[in-house]
Amino acid sequence: MKEGIHPDYRLVVFHDTTADAWFKVGSTISTDRTVEFEGQTYPYVTIEVSSKSHPYYTGKQRTLTKDGSTARFNQRFGRFLGNKQSS
C-alpha cells in the first residue's frame, strides 16, 4: 500500500440529533470537533438521520394505500374513460 495517499481511519463518534443517539464507528470523515465519550476523546460529527431515527428502521414508516397507482387512476378517472369508450 502506498504511503501518504490514504485518509486516516479512526474511531469517530456520530450523534444523531433527531433521536439523541450516539454511535462510535470507524470512519475516515474529517472533523475539527471532538467529544468526550466513554472516558476517551474522539472526533465528533452530528447527523440528522440514522438507524435510530429513520422511519424505515424504526417501523414508523408511512404506508401508502393498498391499491396500486393503476387502481387509484381507474377509481378517479374510470367513469370518464368508460363513457367515452361506450359512445
TrEMBL record:
Keywords: Ribonucleoprotein, Ribosomal protein. Part of the 50S ribosomal subunit. GO terms for cellular component: ribonucleoprotein complex; ribosome. The keyword Ribosomal protein applies. SUPFAM superfamilies: L28p-like (SSF143800). The lineage of its organism: Bacteria, Pseudomonadati, Pseudomonadota, Gammaproteobacteria, Enterobacterales. It comes from Biostraticola tofi. Belongs to the bacterial ribosomal protein bL31 family. Type B subfamily. Gene3D superfamilies: Ribosomal protein L31 (4.10.830.30). The gene is rpmE2. GO terms for biological process: translation. It comes from the Bacteria. One of its GO terms (molecular function) is structural constituent of ribosome. This is Large ribosomal subunit protein bL31B.
